[in-house]
């Protein structure tokens, strides 16, 4: 049995995709919101298969062979600690994208620190919950430092519409998924402020350079960022209004009201990555500007002027 912790749109979509292939799946919800009765998610217009057990009973995790953690990155450690006894010694796969504000580490490190006897992995890449739930083809990166365990997870979690590519570079996969959210906010700001598609392309390109720069400094293979977990996810998130991070940028750029209650991983990650860059002496101008914009410390006009006034240099 496979368990999914987190009954938001993405966690529910993963549960639906896994169940369509006949697997027994448990979907652990913090708040059932009647999903166990209606067999539908309030965020997805798709029926949940009968072989998905929808529950708020965490003891159900004890019989799972692997557990997918589909909770926000900033909540991951707390959820792992809450369910520590049920998750011990299991294969735990993070399905969130971000850098923890307190530890400045990614989801795999959070799993390893909280559950040292667990096998830690991350599932990341260009994917929207609606597409996965609808059965549309989606390719993702599965990163696990233990390649033998990674191969087993790849077989367990691949479905008719989910094609998983494997890597042992967990740091690179984590950073790709986390940092593309920050760049997506920047691209949304550009479009929201009417700066045009050329400005967005420039931000994507220079932002991608920052992603590779930081990845290399933290011990990842910068080439990992050219795959699904980096460039692939960047292309999707920076160009679609289905992305919450891109929509946050659009609102910032247009001067619209911000929904403070919405989970926008890139906002917190921009702060964490700026702290990382400063601590290691790494130049991350786009990420730093996004952190200031999200905190409303500077205006869009000031952000633009700051980036355009940087010294000229080689690409």
Automatic annotation (TrEMBL):
<dbReference type="InterPro" id="IPR036291">
    <property type="entry name" value="NAD(P)-bd_dom_sf"/>
</dbReference>
<dbReference type="InterPro" id="IPR011128">
    <property type="entry name" value="G3P_DH_NAD-dep_N"/>
</dbReference>
<keyword id="KW-0521">NADP</keyword>
<keyword id="KW-0444">Lipid biosynthesis</keyword>
<comment type="pathway">
    <text>Membrane lipid metabolism; glycerophospholipid metabolism.</text>
</comment>
<keyword id="KW-0963">Cytoplasm</keyword>
<feature type="binding site">
    <location>
        <position position="10"/>
    </location>
    <ligand>
        <name>NADPH</name>
    </ligand>
</feature>
<keyword id="KW-1208">Phospholipid metabolism</keyword>
<dbReference type="InterPro" id="IPR006168">
    <property type="entry name" value="G3P_DH_NAD-dep"/>
</dbReference>
<feature type="binding site">
    <location>
        <position position="264"/>
    </location>
    <ligand>
        <name>NADPH</name>
    </ligand>
</feature>
<keyword id="KW-0560">Oxidoreductase</keyword>
<comment type="similarity">
    <text>Belongs to the NAD-dependent glycerol-3-phosphate dehydrogenase family.</text>
</comment>
<feature type="binding site">
    <location>
        <position position="233"/>
    </location>
    <ligand>
        <name>sn-glycerol 3-phosphate</name>
    </ligand>
</feature>
<feature type="binding site">
    <location>
        <position position="245"/>
    </location>
    <ligand>
        <name>sn-glycerol 3-phosphate</name>
    </ligand>
</feature>
<feature type="binding site">
    <location>
        <position position="265"/>
    </location>
    <ligand>
        <name>NADPH</name>
    </ligand>
</feature>
<keyword id="KW-0547">Nucleotide-binding</keyword>
<keyword id="KW-0443">Lipid metabolism</keyword>
<dbReference type="InterPro" id="IPR008927">
    <property type="entry name" value="6-PGluconate_DH-like_C_sf"/>
</dbReference>
<keyword id="KW-0520">NAD</keyword>
<feature type="binding site">
    <location>
        <position position="127"/>
    </location>
    <ligand>
        <name>sn-glycerol 3-phosphate</name>
    </ligand>
</feature>
<feature type="binding site">
    <location>
        <position position="244"/>
    </location>
    <ligand>
        <name>sn-glycerol 3-phosphate</name>
    </ligand>
</feature>
<feature type="binding site">
    <location>
        <position position="125"/>
    </location>
    <ligand>
        <name>sn-glycerol 3-phosphate</name>
    </ligand>
</feature>
<keyword id="KW-0594">Phospholipid biosynthesis</keyword>
<dbReference type="Pfam" id="PF01210">
    <property type="entry name" value="NAD_Gly3P_dh_N"/>
</dbReference>
<feature type="binding site">
    <location>
        <position position="129"/>
    </location>
    <ligand>
        <name>NADPH</name>
    </ligand>
</feature>
<feature type="binding site">
    <location>
        <position position="180"/>
    </location>
    <ligand>
        <name>sn-glycerol 3-phosphate</name>
    </ligand>
</feature>
<dbReference type="Pfam" id="PF07479">
    <property type="entry name" value="NAD_Gly3P_dh_C"/>
</dbReference>
<feature type="active site" description="Proton acceptor">
    <location>
        <position position="180"/>
    </location>
</feature>
<feature type="binding site">
    <location>
        <position position="97"/>
    </location>
    <ligand>
        <name>sn-glycerol 3-phosphate</name>
    </ligand>
</feature>
<dbReference type="InterPro" id="IPR006109">
    <property type="entry name" value="G3P_DH_NAD-dep_C"/>
</dbReference>
<feature type="binding site">
    <location>
        <position position="97"/>
    </location>
    <ligand>
        <name>NADPH</name>
    </ligand>
</feature>
<feature type="binding site">
    <location>
        <position position="244"/>
    </location>
    <ligand>
        <name>NADPH</name>
    </ligand>
</feature>
<dbReference type="InterPro" id="IPR013328">
    <property type="entry name" value="6PGD_dom2"/>
</dbReference>
<feature type="binding site">
    <location>
        <position position="243"/>
    </location>
    <ligand>
        <name>sn-glycerol 3-phosphate</name>
    </ligand>
</feature>
<feature type="domain" description="Glycerol-3-phosphate dehydrogenase NAD-dependent C-terminal">
    <location>
        <begin position="169"/>
        <end position="304"/>
    </location>
</feature>
<protein>
    <recommendedName>
        <fullName>Glycerol-3-phosphate dehydrogenase [NAD(P)+]</fullName>
        <ecNumber>1.1.1.94</ecNumber>
    </recommendedName>
</protein>
<comment type="function">
    <text>Catalyzes the reduction of the glycolytic intermediate dihydroxyacetone phosphate (DHAP) to sn-glycerol 3-phosphate (G3P), the key precursor for phospholipid synthesis.</text>
</comment>
<feature type="domain" description="Glycerol-3-phosphate dehydrogenase NAD-dependent N-terminal">
    <location>
        <begin position="2"/>
        <end position="148"/>
    </location>
</feature>
<feature type="binding site">
    <location>
        <position position="30"/>
    </location>
    <ligand>
        <name>NADPH</name>
    </ligand>
</feature>
């Amino acid at each position: 049995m496979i368990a999914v912790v987190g009954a938001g749109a993405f966690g529910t979509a993963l549960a639906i995709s896994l169940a369509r292939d006949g697997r027994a799946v448990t979907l652990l919800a913090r708040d059932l919101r009647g999903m166990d009765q209606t067999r539908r998610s309030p965020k997805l217009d798709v029926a949940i298969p009968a072989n998905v057990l929808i529950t708020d009973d965490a003891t159900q995790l004890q019989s799972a062979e692997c557990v997918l953690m589909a909770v926000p990155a900033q909540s991951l450690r707390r959820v792992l600690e809450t369910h520590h006894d049920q998750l011990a010694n299991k294969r735990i796969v993070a399905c969130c994208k971000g850098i923890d504000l307190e530890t400045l580490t990614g989801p795999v490190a959070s799993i390893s620190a909280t559950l040292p006897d667990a096998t830690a992995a991350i599932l990341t890449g260009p994917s929207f919950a609606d597409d996965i739930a609808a059965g549309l083809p989606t390719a993702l990166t599965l990163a696990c430092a233990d390649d033998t365990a990674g191969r087993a997870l790849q077989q367990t979690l691949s479905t008719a519409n989910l094609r998983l590519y494997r890597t042992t570079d967990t740091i690179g996969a984590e950073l790709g998924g986390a940092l593309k959210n920050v760049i997506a906010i920047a691209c949304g700001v550009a479009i929201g402020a009417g700066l045009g598609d050329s400005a967005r392309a420039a931000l994507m390109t220079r932002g991608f350079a920052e992603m590779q720069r930081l990845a290399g400094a933290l011990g990842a293979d910068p080439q990992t960022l050219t795959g699904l977990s980096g460039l692939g996810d960047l292309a999707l998130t920076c160009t679609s209004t289905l992305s919450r991070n891109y929509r946050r940028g659009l609102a910032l750029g247009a001067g619209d009201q911000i929904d403070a209650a919405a989970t926008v991983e890139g906002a917190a990650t921009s702060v964490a990555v700026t702290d990382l860059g400063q601590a290691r002496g790494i130049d991350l101008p786009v990420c730093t500007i996004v952190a200031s914009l999200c905190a409303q410390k500077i205006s869009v006009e000031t952000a633009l002027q700051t980036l355009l006034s940087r010294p000229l240099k080689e690409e």
